[in-house]
Specification:
Helix 1 packs across helix 2 and helix 2 packs antiparallel against helix 3. This protein is elongated. It has one domain. The chain has four helices and no strands. It is 68% helix and 0% strand. By secondary structure, the protein is mainly alpha-helical.
Length: 120
């Protein structure tokens, strides 16, 4: 199901939410891949420390190894900036979508529950 079909069937907000969730999952996968494959070996092999502190940047003894951390910071920053720019266009298009489609058909599909707390 494409974005346009999802927006027509469930509404633009649902399509935007699901697209955002998909982007966050992809961002998490990329961050975990680079974090575990580049940063973790650099941090663990620096000083002999036991436990969780062995995995942090505080364990890096050689200052020449900081370049990897700087590279990862720039990589993650550009990925996040790209996502912000992508979702900025979604928010700009939402005003256009609400003005051109039949919003009443989407609103009628919402379930509104009242007096639910009186049972308890």
């Amino acid at each position: 199901m494409g974005r346009a079909d999802l927006a027509e069937k469930c509404g633009y907000d649902a399509m935007l939410y699901l697209t955002f969730q998909k982007a966050m999952i992809l961002l998490w996968i990329v961050c975990c891949f680079f974090g575990l494959s580049i940063l973790l070996p650099i941090n663990i092999t620096s000083k002999p420390v036991d436990g969780f502190p062995a995995t942090t940047i505080g364990n890096v003894a050689d200052p020449s190894r900081y370049w990897a951390h700087i590279f990862i910071v720039f990589l993650f920053s550009f990925l996040i900036y790209g996502l912000v720019f992508k979702f900025r266009s979604f928010l700009i298009n939402s005003r256009t979508w609400q003005g051109t489609t039949n919003v009443k058909s989407v609103v009628r599909r919402i379930i509104f529950l009242t007096n639910t707390f009186q049972m308890f």
